[in-house]
Amino acid sequence: RSPNELASYQKKVIRIDDHMGIAMAGLTSDARVLSNYLRTEAMRSKMVYGRALPIGRAVNAIGDKAQSNTQEYGRRPYGVGLLVIGHDDSGPHLYEFNPSGIVSEYYAYSIGSRSQSARTNLERNFDTFEDMSLKELIVQGLRSLRDTLQQGKQLDTLNTSIGFVGKDAKMTILDGQDTQEYLDLLDEGEAMDTE
Prior knowledge:
Elements: E1 13-17, E2 20-26, H1 28-49, H2 55-69, E3 80-88, E4 91-97, E5 103-105, H3 116-125, H4 134-146, E6 161-164, E7 172-175, H5 180-194
Antiparallel strand pairs: 1-2, 2-3, 3-4, 4-5, 6-7
Helix pairs in contact: 1-2, 3-4, 4-5
């Protein structure tokens, strides 16, 4: 089979608000439904309460929405897992959302096919994350992501997206050539490790 442009890489990182974003694994259309719902909730919080939607409340809202689908006849569960990142008044957050509606908070996590090797790498190194700069954290994430690739595949500007948010940084998504700097740092780190 010859690869078609329609079967190319799809964007898997979505900005929800200035302080929140999601990464998805699964059915993209279901992720779009949930991301639109989150955007609406974030706007509602700004309009009604005059403040950004707390990340925990946002994730619990989509968890409740997904869980209700499992209780009604004729409805199907959402076929997507999400990682929700954000920064609010209580600090930085990373949540995992399951299609069943279960929500868990983590320091570092990975979802999707072959994600166990990335989780192992993250678990092995997460105690050093607090002392790392943003660039070092991104390179560590890319190193973990690279561990999940099929044999013969490599990270490049066409299949890599980077998303980050922080206390002084709005939700930022890097795609395409914007990721090259971090991919080069990843390659430099590997070259230094082999010497």
